[in-house]
Amino acid sequence: MTSTSAQLEFTGRRRRRIILAASAGNFAEWYDWGVYGVVATLLATQFFPSGDAVTGLLNTYAVFALGYLARPLGGIVFGRIGDKHGRRRAMSLTVLVTCGGTAAMGLLPTYQQIGLFAPLLLVLCRMAQSMGAGGEYASAISFVYEHSPARRRARNVAQLVASTFVGIMTGSVLARITSAVMSRESYEAYGWRILFLVAVPLALMGVYLRRRVEETPEFEELARTRRKTAVEAAPLRSTLRQQWPAMLVLLVCTASYALISTTITSYLTTFLIDVGGLATDQAYNATVLSNLAVIAATLATGVLCDRVGLRRTLTIAGCVVAALAVPSLALAASGLAGGLVGVVLIGTCKGLLALPALLALSVIFPVTVRVTAGALAYNVTQAAFGGTGPIIGVWLNDSTGGPYGLGIYLTVLAVSTVAGSIAGRRIFDRRFAEAALPGPAEGPATTDAQTGQKEQHI
């Protein structure tokens, strides 16, 4: 099948099949990711010595942060696979690794059973989970982006990104249902393990759907070029030599998203309980409401981005988050009524940032190194700002006795998003303009070779 026919058919059933395949694995991986944050308070009592509650929670989030250190490594490993052997193969492997690490958490013995080996094994499982997640986003986004006609790329990627938040929300809902139908003793003894073991069927579903779709037209064309020229692919070397300016811009522009994504995914429930004074069930319900706001904002931002462009969308999102970060967290800490308003505002901020931050992983890098460069830059940012987000949040709120420290921190990073989008204007506008050139669905295909931007190492 030629690239032209592939994209001409990106309508109706084929479009749904491609987005479903990418989204199913994405849903599975991020369901796993969300569960850890939802049960963080309980994990603190299961895997660490009994004592001060804040210390136990900090230990749990320290494990969370250590897991993020494996994400850049996962980005390199699976990015190389995605750029050398195909996006589809990388996606199938990432879902197995991430869900395998998550399922293993559901089988771990506790601190009371094996002592210090319990947190050590928890760290290893978290690092496996993080490695898989490190390659997931860049692979899946590139897959959908390269299958999509230019005029719908942001909207199609927005549907994929929204599946992430559906997965995270499902984790919250299942935690709520499980804790409601089981006695407290049963839930703390083994009920929480069920949430992690659900990863097994989700992984199988993700792999099945992803193996039933074809590779992207852009990568197939790249593979044909490599076979004709007999040039060995070296995506990591090309990335480090040629893409570091774009990677630096991406790091600055997405730091705020890295923080806010973990704030909602893995800290918001704890924040609402410990700082806002909400009961556990109220906090779970508020987290679900926040994720609904994230999903709605993400889908709406996809439409906006297709109309006004990536850089402008990122600038708008950064301005909104800078203005709302402190007020939204202050509201979230003010009881049930204010908490519900606050979590909706926080969720909206996350959705506004999510689409442009993640779409940039594919837009600003060429097809030859798209997964490697996007995954490496994104995961370094996530490790630096996302992995430390919950533990910094606990520390700031415990030190200040309120939500303002974390809110100010998020505001500063949102301002850096605006500054980075302006300073990196040439990178964003040039790449987005190239991506918007008539593609196979609308005219002749445009490749890196035709635009004179072919990498030194294909």
CATH class: Mainly Alpha
Query: Mean pLDDT, nearest integer?
Result: 82
Count of domain modules: 1
For the terminal residues, how far apart are their CA atoms? 22 Å
Encode the helix/strand succession as letters. HHHHHHHHHHHHHHHHHHHHH
Q: And the CATH topology?
A: Growth Hormone, Chain: A
Work out the strand percent. Answer: under 5%
Global geometry: globular
Task: Report the C-alpha radius of gyration, rounded.
Answer: 21 Å
CATH superfamily: MFS general substrate transporter like domains
- Portion of residues in helices? over 70%
Total DSSP helices? 21
The SS-based structural class is: mainly alpha
- Low-pLDDT runs of 5+ residues are 1-8, 437-458
Number of beta-strand segments: 0
Give me a quick take on this structure.
It holds the Pfam family MFS_1. The chain has 458 residues and is an all-alpha fold.
Task: Explain this structure.
The two termini are 22 Å apart. This protein is globular. It has 458 residues and is mainly alpha-helical. It has a single domain, classed as Growth Hormone, Chain: A, CATH 1.20.1250.20. It is built from 21 helices and no strands. Mean pLDDT is 82; it is low at 1-8 and 437-458. Helix 5 packs parallel to helix 8 and helix 8 (117-147) packs antiparallel against helix 9 (153-181). It has helices spanning 3-8, 12-38, 40-47, 53-68, 70-84, 87-105, 111-114, 117-147, 153-181, 184-197, 199-211, 217-229, 235-242, 244-274, 280-308, 310-332, 336-363, 370-386, 389-400, 404-423, 425-435.
Main attributes of the structure:
single chain; 458 residues; mainly alpha; Growth Hormone, Chain: A; 21 helices; disordered N terminus; transmembrane helix
